[in-house]
Design brief:
8-stranded parallel β-barrel, 22 strands, single chain, alpha/beta
Length: about 500
């Protein structure tokens, strides 16, 4: 019995040692696997004042375990928000005219800078329905008075400059992407004969700058015929429309039309919504299309009306009244099923396009970061291309020295005489977001507590994390980027140069 007990205990001891060794081996393997998972790398792109960096790739960043830092950009991909639609600019007649004056090499360069895989990867655009301030003159698609059935409707005017520009942009995207160029079309004014004072401008301000009652159905039909004609005659699909560009602006010196929240609601539910849902059931209709200051009021008025809200996909807004990001947040939480899309932004023209203001880049990035962090699903800039004076436009003084109107900025300004295109600073700043945040990306949790750093972050359909950090200060700032997603934490040290923006991308 003693020998048998010894043999049994000996066997048990051997098994215990074996199990202990196996446990230690597994523990080491798990730890090593965890270190291998955590110790990933990130791609790093930077644009910085006082350097040659313009969306320039830097050395890869190596993640490690967490470490102490006084400034932290905190990322958590397990907390998600809105899905992104995309980014783009406007095919105005002015932009199309300037494009037509460039030689074929420069035209290809412009198309690639915006729509190619190597460029900003734009996947959205805005298109005026008829003339606007950035047109060569006033025009519409049916200039025959009292043509209630629009028998003389024609888009031939757009076939000269605008449609060729759009078609080349679409072809540029097709070279690398199967996703569509989603175009939002917006009217500035109906033909003069549909309006109270028989003029496209608002010569008395908002007084009488509206539709005649007898042409409300005709104006709704005008939208439908525009969409149909673009598809049938040009092969261009319109993704969405806004009811009216800047319905509260009532401009004295260019095209406009006045709506109140109540009159736009009634036009949408009685005329425009029924017409477009019948003729173009997949089309998106966006309300408002003006500044952030009154977005909550307009959303409440239209979305609380059951007969109107069923036709509205979401809200379009502009940036000209200031940040007012809290209004976007409020609008979202009141109506979470209605996306918010930024459809216009621009700064005053550059006095010296060869040496552009850095602040314009920071203005754009600040607005986009603030918008995205408050539920906005996309950002469409104003003119894709303008001349060196920020034109042409037919509103205000042409000498660009007057106090009222003096041209506008654009990401690309062209010297047609010398055949040179000058990218402006905000081309690169916007590119730090549009180039990396593809359609279908989802915003994820990001935060930083520093007066000169701003950040936002996304998870792309390919499961890549995209973090954008801007430093608006005069001094470089070193921060820790800490990703706390799930059970794993990984951190990396980054230095943001003074007046710089960086995009950091990792899996």
């Amino acid at each position: 019995p003693a020998i048998g007990t010894y043999t049994y205990c000996h066997k048990q001891m051997i098994m215990l040692k074996f199990n202990l060794a196996w446990w230690l081996l597994c523990t080491l393997c798990v730890a090593q696997a965890s270190r291998m998972e955590t110790a990933s790398t990130a791609e790093w792109f930077r644009t910085a004042q006082g350097t040659s960096d313009r969306l320039t790739r830097q050395h890869d960043l190596q993640f490690s375990a967490d470490f102490p830092s006084t400034i932290t950009v905190l990322i958590n991909r397990s907390v998600t928000y809105q899905t992104i639609e995309g980014f783009g600019g406007a095919f105005t007649e002015s932009a199309s005219y300037v494009f037509s004056k460039l030689n074929s090499t420069l035209q290809s360069q412009v198309l690639d800078m915006y729509f190619s895989e190597e460029g900003l990867r734009y996947n959205m655009a805005r298109l005026p329905i008829g003339s606007c301030d950035f047109s060569l003159g006033v025009y519409n698609y049916d200039n025959v008075s009292k043509d209630s059935n629009l028998d003389h409707f024609s888009i031939d005017h757009d076939k000269q400059l605008i449609i060729p520009f759009i078609k080349q942009a679409i072809e540029t995207r097709k070279k690398w992407s199967n996703s569509t160029l989603n175009i939002v079309a917006s009217p500035w004014s109906p033909p003069y004969w549909m309006k109270q004072l028989d003029i496209t401008y608002c010569v008395l301000g908002c007084l009488l700058c509206n539709l005649r009652d007898e042409y409300k159905a005709t104006w709704a039909l005008y939208f439908s015929k525009f969409i149909s004609a673009y598809y049938a005659e040009a092969g261009i699909d319109i993704w969405g429309v806004t009811v009216q560009n800047e319905p509260g602006a009532c401009p004295l010196d260019y095209e406009g039309m006045h709506f109140t929240p109540e009159t736009e609601r009634d036009f949408l539910k009685t005329y425009l919504g029924p017409q477009l849902s019948k003729d173009h059931p997949k089309l998106k209709i966006l309300i408002y299309d003006h500044n952030k200051d009154h977005v909550v009021e307009w959303a409440k008025t239209i979305y609380t009306d059951a007969d109107a809200t069923k036709y509205a996909w979401g809200t379009a807004m502009h940036w000209y009244s200031g940040d007012q990001f809290d209004n976007l947040n409020t609008t979202h939480f009141l109506f979470p099923d209605k996306p918010i899309l930024a459809t216009e932004a621009t700064d005053p023209r550059e006095i010296d396009p060869k040496h552009p203001l850095w602040s314009h880049g920071e203005h754009y990035a600040h607005d986009i970061i603030g918008d995205m962090n408050n539920w906005v699903v996309g950002f469409i800039d104003w003119n894709l291309l303008l001349d060196m004076l920020g034109g042409p436009d037919h509103a205000g003084p042409k000498e660009c020295e007057g106090p009222i109107k003096c041209g506008s900025d654009a990401m690309l300004l062209a010297d047609a005489e010398n055949q040179v295109v000058y990218p402006q600073v905000f081309y690169y700043y916007v590119g730090h977001i549009s180039k990396f945040v593809s359609r279908g990306s989802v915003r994820i949790s990001s935060s930083v507590f520093n007066s000169t750093l701003e950040c936002t972050a996304f998870l792309t359909p390919l499961k890549q994390v995209v973090v954008v950090v801007m430093n608006t200060g005069d001094q470089p700032i070193t921060f820790k980027l800490l990703d706390t997603s799930g059970n794993k934490q990984q951190a990396v040290k980054v230095t943001a140069l003074a007046h710089s923006i960086q995009t950091i991308m990792y899996s």
